[in-house]
Give the backbone structure.
Amino acid sequence: VCVSLNLYPPPLLGVRVSDRCVLLMAAAQDSLYLGFDFSTQQLKVVAIDGDLNVVHQNHVLFDSELPEFRTQGGVQLHADRLTVTSPVLMWVKALDLLLDKMRRAEFDFSRVRALSGSGQQHGSVYWRRGASETLNQLDPDQSLFSVLDSPVWMDSSSSQQCQDLQAAAGGALRLAEITGSRAYERFTGNQIAKLRQNRLEEFQDTERISLVSSFAASLFLGGYAAIDYSDGSGMNLLDIRSRTWSEICLEATAPHLDRLLGAPLPPTSVLGPVSSYFVRRCGFSESCRVVAFTGDNPASLAGMRLQQGDIAVSLGTSDTVFLWIQQPRPALEGHVFCNPVDWQEYMALLCFKNGSLTRERVRNECTGGSWEVFSAALRETPLGNNGNIGFYFDTMEITPPAVGVHRFDSDDTEVEVRALVEGQFLSRRLHAERLGYSIIPGTRVLATGGASSNKEILQVLSDVFNAPVYTIDLSNSTCLGSAYRALHGNTLTVLPLILLILQQYCSSASVLIISPDYCDLKKGKKENLVKEVKEKRWNKEKKRAPEADP
Ligand SMILES: Nc1ncnc2c1ncn2[C@@H]1O[C@H](COP(=O)(O)OP(=O)(O)O)[C@@H](O)[C@H]1O
Ligand SMILES: O=C(CO)[C@@H](O)[C@H](O)COP(=O)(O)O
């Protein structure tokens, strides 16, 4: 591995070859690094070794493996159809179950040098007074939490609190200037304000508020984990330039809120060793470190190794589009978060609520619940769908704030499938361009998330963006990014993550490239230029990638 690293120009980032060897020795081969993801529908884990090879993967699906919590897609929709929560005990139990599954698969916890993770963004967890004393026992039956139903990112019930916060901050744009986003219902500060107004007793019984990410880190630490700058940017509370809580926003949300939140920290912080509970329960080494957990989209940015000019499209429960940016230019649409890899830089993100769940609904109604038939419908229909465009907002959308299904007059199920997917990706592109992104020759679209395993969906993505789409063989870049961050936090506290990235380029990853269909829309002619290249090195693929047709 040292030899392959030497292929890169020696002056790179001013790091000497000897330093690189030290770096690699530090990430010794028998060491393992864990990345967890507490996402909307499941808890996932990936283990990598010191060479960044994936050596173990596992998951727990909330709906089917923990049916006692009666969730649908990992959440509970309340009667007002706006409030959406998840049972916090379900997440605790899921971790218990996942660790059991790993043990049954003979995963060797004693080799884990560091772990990190991510959580669905914006969700909040409320720890009851006195919880810090029992936290290191992790017994799900204990009453650790003052609020059992955690608000999650799908919630849109805090419109009044959003208006109040914007008024206090001096308007929507001013709030965006401070926190990176105008007020959004799902953002944690507005959820906290709503809880304080509607459930004062539970609020007063709370000693600490965590994000889903810092809650998960707290379980591993056996003590309260800091909120990291990157996930903290999704709260409408953090000043994204000073990286401290904004006084104006705190005051408008709840009194003495800074005490409940704790001080935010850089996403690469090492928080401490894993708790003695996990040492006893799983056989973790006492020296295994917990690196700050972050939001699932920031973790995904780390896992996808985004480069300048790339655009990432995550097709998880939500669809998100994100970019690495240097300077924040917050606007009334979209979000600017602190960057999870280089905490002095930023990332821009757009979130679309009607993503995979809407595709699943149309799959169930039009193609008998089969992704194969859904894919076949995309193959059988022409690009452009003969002009049949649809916009499908089953629930109140985030970008744009709209609801309802707006479609053409036809009952053809194949046409419906293409209209849905093309409409979704047209919207992703349109809003990305409004955010300032331009599709130019050389643009790479990096796809991830559950639906990125579907080649026909990726073909539509490539056609609509008129750019090649790349994906790694593991559609789960969030967990992978968390495992990279664990290694980074553990061994590279003074060296940039980019070294890891270069190392990854040297290993052979399966890369799938899909290039746009060049198609004469008038004639409906379709030349299928899908190219699959497997077992190739990512850097070689980059050189060969076909340029987008301007
Ligand atoms: N073959 C497929 N084609 C299209 N979508 C798929 C396919 N397989 C899984 N999905 C979608 O992936 C989604 C889950 O993605 P994932 O990234 O695991 O979500 P999350 O991290 O939010 O829990 C499911 O809701 C499902 O609709
Ligand atoms: O709200 C957002 C981003 O702002 C969502 O992207 C959540 O972070 C949920 O992520 P997934 O479970 O869909 O990956």
